[in-house]
Amino acid sequence: MISIDNWKKEKSNASLEILTLNYPELALFIAGKWRKTTSKIPVINPATEEEIGELPCVAESDLDDALESATAGFWTWSRTAPRERADIIMRAAKLMRERQEEIAYSITLEHGKPLKQARLEVIRGAEFFEWDAGEALRTYGRIIPTASGTKFAVHHQAIGVVAAFSPWNFPMSQPARKIAGALASGCSIILKAAEETPAGAFHIAKAFHDAGLPPGVFNLVFGNPAQISEYIIPKDQVRLVAFTGSTLVGRKLTALAAEYDTNVLMELGGHAPVVVCEDTDVSKAAELGAIRKMRNAGQVCTSPTRFFVHQDVFDSYGAQFVKRAAQTIVGNGLEANTEMGPLANSRRVSNLEELVEDARTKGAIIATGGNKKGKRGYFFEPTVLMNVPEEAMIMKVEPFGPIAVINLVTSLGHAIQQANAVQYGLAGYAFTNRADYIDRLIDEMEVGNLSINTLEASMPETPFGGVKSSGYGREGGTEGLENYLVVKNVWHSINPV
Length: 497
Description:
Helix content: 25-40%
Low-confidence stretches: 1-19
Number of helices: 13
């Protein structure tokens, strides 16, 4: 276990508070109680390759208990008044904000991202809960006008027990999306959090336990993803499978759920294009692109990756992008000046090396980076590839790492055609000030989230999700609870007819 004594946190008045921070002693959370297991696997710090904790892995008996408690929890929670549900969710979110430093430190240890980014992630996770707590009060139905003596009414009711699976790249905010939507809707949930980065979900469970959530409403398990999904998805109690992860795994889970007529909410892979038009502020767009590409070491499903730059500004944009990317400070996330931490594991490093070599052999220019960095930890150099041919793997496969592709296009139509030339459609970006260009981008870009003159893809109050092979359904916004609710039509005749 790793701890830092005399950790110094600057407060707004510049005084110093002495803290002792530790990686948490992990446990399952089932039926409102913490549970240890005999089967454990190590949790590894990707910056040092050291073991920082032990992850308890579920047995089938634990999953049976989770299913039983979630079923009982749903009966209680779905009949709890929306205002009471919202109050508990808000109390938990408040605790997460108060525990920001403790949670962020755990995330940086297990994930590697800079501590500053981890702190922001904790707040973003709390914001998801706060938004959905408000939406819990607004799951309105409606009355449909009809003849006297008859009433038509539409009710929205919680779908039931949710089996959710969250990824490793955002240990706090990704679990928060699913837990928030489920609890605000009146559902109970069994969350299988990522085995590489379990602390974020653990801290969420701790906050809800302390906030007074009824037992069984939120259950947290860890372990082998395939074994857990294959065991719980076929169970009659499960009414919705909510998953964030790769398109390949998402297809498998969707197929499994379809065998049992179980609904799915899928947020899958992306390969986000960035269209840079000739009228944009090149310096600002290039600097923003280089900084955001390297955020979270590029391990973001909405990460800007394929940059299609108009020929009139291609040289200037490329030069400034490469310069800023090469200046990225790579290191341990606990170091104050670090801008980019390590990749999640050694497999990610090997995968990126393969993509770079494939692009190089097919004629791409490696403008900067392209290699593993250092001898210890899973670090990779910020990398920019230019003039990458369409047949290169990286033009079709999401790199999920700090690699940017910058290619020349001759027109907006050419850029849109290139942007749409992949199976993914999660996020897309564009830089332009022309109203006619913006109108065309909105109409023609095949993405679920389009951002213009910014590289931010979503906020808690906006719907998030993809098209094509990037998934089904939406999280966030007023649309975010729809997958967790069923629509019931009620026809009430005053007299028998």
